[in-house]
Amino acid sequence: MGALQVLLVERDPHVRELETHFLEQAGFAVNAAIDGQTALELAISLQPHVIVTEVLLGRVDGLALCRQLKSNPATKKIPVVVFSILAANMRAKEAGADAFLMKPLAKERLLGVIHTLVPSPGLASAQESR
Amino acid sequence: MTETSDTARFKPAPLGRITSGSVQLDAILGGGFPSNSINMLMGEPGSGKTILAETLIFANASADGRPILYLTTLSEPLEKVVRYLQQFSFYDDEKLMSGAIRYESLGEELAKNGISALVPKLREIIKTMSPKIIVIDSFKAIHDLSTSLPEMRQMLYEVSGLLTAYEVTAFFLGEYSEDQIPSYPEFAVADAMVELARKKQGTRDERYLRVLKLRGSNYQEGLHAFRITEDGLHVFPRLTSPDIPMRYTANNERLSTGVEGLDRIMQGGVWAAGATLLEGPTGAGKTTLALQFILEGLKRGESGLYVNFQENPTQLARSIESLGWNFDEARKKGLHLLYASPVELQIDSILVELFRTIKEHDIRRVVVDSIGDLIVAASDLNRLYSYLYALVQHFIARRVVCMMTLETTSAGVVPMEGQISALTDAILRLGVELDGGKARRTLQIVKARGTNHDLDVQELRITSRGVEVG
Known about the structure:
The complex is a heterodimer. Chain A is 46% helix and 18% strand.
């Protein structure tokens, strides 16, 4: 098994760049999309271990993306973290998200939440080797 | 998933605050600087920007948390900043040694690549250090390096985007003036602006700070005095009227002044919630009468505070003993003294101590001796009037009875007479009359709200038992 895959859905280039950096540094493989429609297609084709999405996105917003992911048998088991500038914690929960994080980005908070949803990359590799 | 972990996973992050390192400045800012914001600390050279930033970073640094980064640019060499920093009491070697606070210079990169060096440097810093606070001192030096307004705007757009994306609070220091705010684009990206200024007042300088902008916060407007000492910045918030709403209920309680004859003509004494002014020339007995008012309270188990700008504590102790009291005994019974030299008096500087004493010791009687010293110390009489008005309102809200003294000139002129009169419930005019070669002291009730009194001039005598009237 290779590195655990994270799909980032984020239109802000600074947030996207920093998120990618911290996740790759922690051993994840990162793919990114800047709108909800592309993210939905990538989720189906890549089957990432976790999806991190902003609410404010083009084409399909982050909450609609979350609802579509959770209603599609092909993607419903993928954990979704809503990571937003909006205090949309309850709306994220209603949309079926597995966790909510408020911006701005902080490395420890992002990795902390992701680690509650998927095993750490190192642990996954160790389990795989057994 | 348990309910607890479910709740934790959907909890929105609270909007945090960063302490400025000063309780008083935090109160002015409505709780501190907002975290994850861009803040401008502006003012002329020597106004205290760097000391404020340093107080702030040492107050927020912790060895087990994310670091704080202090970036110097092209204004002062890094070594000079660190050398002068060590003279302050908040300086802590350990915070530098442990890496909780890191000082770096951007000077070389800026000199080589111009302002385009800043964004890649900040990006690298965030990726490698994840600092919780970044200070850039001086940001104005970066502005001065820019070759065009579009270049500066482009750079600020990137800086602002980067600093907003990550959980970091930034402080940009600069020798900016207020008139540059509309035209300098860095102010457009700032969430908060605090200006530090210095004003010549007689033979000394008075320092002020002012919040010009603070997004999403209910801050205290206006000029707030501060001093720089070896402990850093001491801020004295501008006195404003109390938040406690005033009630339309009459309080008919009167307090004895300690002078039987005066109580008699004032129908029992002064109002229990109000202010009395004692005005008169030197030697008329203002301080003696005011002291007697405080000592009478001690006899009745009421703590008193004597705020004094002329007599030092030794001189005051002598005055108290001349009224038949043992000074130490008076202290034990609840006499509190607040002395401030008139030479260094800044009218806002006494307030923190004054209200702390009132609260901690349940003070019931206060004397301010004298307002004349506040008039001399104040840079602006309109500001002084607002100050005195708010001060009296605070006393009333706290059920503290106040007596203030004011020295009149030989011509009988009282500065701000009409305004001060409006603040007080009673005005007692003390005088010295010459009759041939003989002088006698007098007292006249000029004003006493809600009291039937005549305007007759009474005789006032100072004996070994204190002031006697009538």
